[in-house]
Structures are given as structure tokens and as C-alpha cells.
Amino acid sequence: MASELLLLARLSFLIIFTCSSAAPVTPTPITDTLLTQVAGSLQMFVDELPQMPKLLGYSNGAASPKPGSLTIGMYQTEWKFHRNLPPTTVFAFGTSEDAATVPGPTIEAIKGIPTSVTWQNNLPQTHILPWDPTIPTATAKQGGVPTVVHLHGGVHEPQHDGNPNAWFTSHFRETGSAWSKATYTYPNVQHSGNLWYHDHALGLTRVNILAGLIGAYNIRDPTLEASLNLPSGPEFDRNLMIFDRSFSRDGSLYINYTGIVPSIHPQWQPEYFGHAILVNGKAWPFMNVQKRKYRFRLTNAANARYFQLSLSNGLSFTQIGSDASYLPAPVQTQSILLSPSESADVVIDFSTSTATEIVMNNNAAYPNPTGSPVDNLNSKVMKFVNAPGNPRAPDSSKIPASLVNYKASTTDAAATTRYIVLYEYTTPSGSTTHLYINGKRYEDPVTETAKSGSTEIWEVINLTADNHPLHVHLATFQAIKIQQLSNQAQFTSCMTQNNDAVACNVASYLTGPLIDIPATEKTWKNTVKIPPGTQTTVVVKFNLVDTNSPFPFDATTQPGYVYHCHILDHEDNAMIRPLQLV
What we know:
Blueprint: E1 3-9, E2 12-18, H1 32-40, E3 54-56, E4 58-60, E5 65-79, E6 88-94, E7 106-110, E8 115-122, E9 149-152, E10 183-186, E11 193-199, H2 205-211, E12 214-220, H3 222-228, E13 237-245, E14 276-279, E15 282-283, E16 286-289, E17 293-300, E18 307-311, E19 317-322, E20 325-333, E21 335-338, E22 343-349, E23 357-362, E24 380-386, E25 414-426, E26 432-437, E27 448-450, E28 455-462, E29 468-472, E30 476-484, H4 488-498, E31 527-530, E32 534-541, E33 561-565, H5 568-572, E34 576-581
Parallel strand pairs: 3-7, 5-8, 7-12, 13-17, 16-24, 25-28, 27-34
Antiparallel strand pairs: 1-2, 4-5, 5-6, 8-10, 9-11, 11-12, 13-14, 14-15, 17-22, 18-21, 18-23, 19-20, 19-22, 23-24, 25-26, 28-32, 29-31, 29-33, 30-32, 33-34
């Protein structure tokens, strides 16, 4: 029987509903030492990198591709994350329970050809992971696991966006207040690039994604790709979804059952960091490569972990894209910093290395940027085994001198300037209780009402100690300036009292040094890093940036869109706000 609890949290009242379907509390605590031992017992580089199943989001017509229709379910099944780990119970996407994988199948779409997906929830009555009913949460009164799918980076109508309140349980027995459609249509009207899909249910995103509900989605432009002549084909153009997980000895997924402030939130913790690093669902896999160029579409699908990726033996990346956009020209770089949800499109030329083994490493502190340094486990990602001799067939692919020039980012045409302020609230002892944008709850009335087709400037001010990946649904955007705040404590004190950057004279605090924006991020993105103690100026476009034209659909309808921090533990509690186009 559901019961009502009233919770007083700093600067907020949350009305909470608990239900009998909550996962039971674990009988015995599992220590960090044990989790480290389990991860450390998994020999690295012994499982081959999987190639996830591919689903075509179009049908082949007589003369040209036609719109496609897919049915993809969410299932509870078992998955082998490592050869020496017992099978793990997961939630997974697939066309059937037997075909379900972690990550789910890669959907391949074509620019301008719509893809319709009927998302089906076949999950059980109870969750496989603990969840916290004291944060704003999708709660099914009749049991079941609420889910809804969001296409990250997609350009589509609000009803197809996977709004957090558009959740549904198995067979649509219960639905959220914003649910309206069982089938989502993705028009694929934006430029080609790398997207991904994942669960987005209110308050459950962190546990549903942790359970396995992720998958890649590529939009291709055959004409453009033919002209660029980059590495192509299923062997030489690969999606790599990188994330972290912790495992108990029996192979089960582990997330801490006890909150950082259990008297307020019994389960919620501010960040999840797993002990094992996984790529395409395998712990520290290896991939056999030939001495030639490969294209890798890298996505950080972790809940909270940043990845600072590099290659051993002096090998470098040639980055050609960021998120769902190409760069203007290739950038050769020794390392790439990916925040949660961020993607990088790279080429690695293995013919330039005499090494037979090349390790992809990670050197990102956690939490980022000033948390714990990496250890001997989370500092390794995967290994490439570089076969000696010539490739089996000549490599005719190229890395062109120039790529794609979209419409330039500029503040000239901006219709509105907004201040977006990121807050973290703590107990007197400094433990985090919740995080808000502009001091507001998700359920508070919408304050960001952008005109469809417009350009806005968002001055994003980060008053916390963490780097936050900002994700704005529907929009494409680009950071053009990052400035360190001076006398941040004084400014934060004023903002805590007034919640008004103009009234607090933010301009007088913008005297700190400028922070360089990497050349690898100077394109239109769907996730932008917001460093701590800074104001980041972001140009936000609510149109199609490749043609500077309006959306070919009505983006002003309900339930609207959202924007949020993509550290999932932050998003769930509750660094997320509604966004309504007008």
C-alpha cells in the first residue's frame, strides 16, 4: 500500500510516494575492498570486443531508401560482462529477449529518411537495483519498472522525445502524465552524426541506464560520406560505448544501497563510479586490428565518470567529430576528455605504429576535475592487437584536410540572453542533499521559453566543485567562452540569497582567467562541459544548424523538452528543468 511522506530538504519540499515494488535492502554490506577484489580478479584483454547487432532504420526501396519501422523491447535477461564473471542479470534492449544485448542494437538511419520505433517495456514487477523514492521519481502504483526512451541528440517533436514524465510500465499498464505515444518517429532531418538512445524515466534514469538500457544510433549521409572517404564498413567503422560498473562475487550489478545522507535520501548518492571499465558490454576487451585506418565512434555512456582517453606507444587520435557534428577540419590529439553522454568521432591509423599491442588508457579524476586519481583498474579501457604485416586489402580510405563547415557560431543573431545557474545543496557537514538549476525544482513552472527557430545566449554559471555536462534536448549549441569567476565565495553567497546573477552583479566577478576551448569541441554539440567556478557562454540554436532553417515540425507542443546535467545521479536529484518552445 502506498504511503505519503513529507520531506523537508534544503530550499525544497518534495512530496514522496513509496511503493511496495521497491527493491529490498541488501542484508549484508558490500565493501569497496570486495568490489575492488572482484574487478581485480577479471583478467584484462581476454574478451574480444563485441560488435553490437545492427538494425536498419529504413527500408530499401526500388530506387531509394524508404522510411523504416522497428519494434525494440526492454527485457530482463542475463549478460556476460567477462568470461570469468558469472552471468549478470540486466535490463537490455533487443528485438526479442534472446537477442537483447548490453549495449542494445545499433540503429543505423539515413539523413532525411524517418525511422519509427515502437518501444516495448517487457520488464518485471520489481527493479533489479535499489532506487530511492525520496527524490522526484516515476512511481508505478501497481508495480513494474517505469521506462521511457530518449534519443540523445535527436531532432524531433516533443511527443517523441522521451519526456521524463512520459514513462510507461509493462504493456502500458500504467503511464506517466506526459505519455501519449507507443511509437516514436525520428525524422532524421538533422545533419549526419553519432547519437545514442537510453532510458529517461523521472528519478530512475541512473538505475535504468546502470541496468543496461543504452544503445547507439548513427545517422548517415551516403553522399557526404562518399566524398569524405573516411574508413567505412562494419569492420573499419565501429561504435565504442564506454562505461563503468561494479560487480558482486555472484556477477550481479552493484550500486550502493545506502545514501550519502540516509536520513534525507536513504539510497541516493551524488555520483556512481564502477570499479570495472567496459566497452560494448565487455570488461577491458581487446580488438584485433590491421595496419590501416579505423574509424571509432566513441560514446561515454557512464553515469558519472569522465574519461580522459589516450593511446599507448605514442599513437594519437585524429578527431573528426564531436557529438553529432563533424569538425571543420581534423584535429590530431594525444588525448580526448569525454564527459558523461559526450561522443567523439576519431580515426586511428594503426599503420603508423610498430607496436603489436596498443592500450587505450584513461586518466580522468573522479569526480572530475579534482577527485580521486585513477588506479590500476580504471586507468585501462581496452587493448588493440596490431597484426604485423600489410592489411588483408589495401587501405584506400583517407583523412581529408577539411571536413564540414556548418553555420558559424555567433552571438549576433541572439534573441535572448539567459543566466543558467548550477547549485549544489549540502548539510552543515558538507554532504550533498540535492542539486538544482536556477534554484528550482523540476516540477516548478517552466522558465525557459525559447522561440522555435531562434538563437539564444546561455550564460551558464557553475557554483559547484564538479564539472557538469550540460545537455539541452532538441537544441544544438556550442561554448564560445569560458571565464573563471573571481571571489566565488562572495558571489555564491549573494546568489544563494537572491538567485539573480544580474542583481548580484556577475560582471564584476568575471575577472578570472579565460579557459581555452579545445579545438576538438569547436563545433555544434548536444553536450557541453561546464567547468566549476566559471561562467560558460553558450550559443544555443533552436533550428537546423547545417541549413540555418526552422524545424520542419511543430516543436511548440506539449509536453515540451528538458535540459539537465548529464551526470545521471545529479539529473535524478534534481538538476533538470523543463524547456518549452513557443
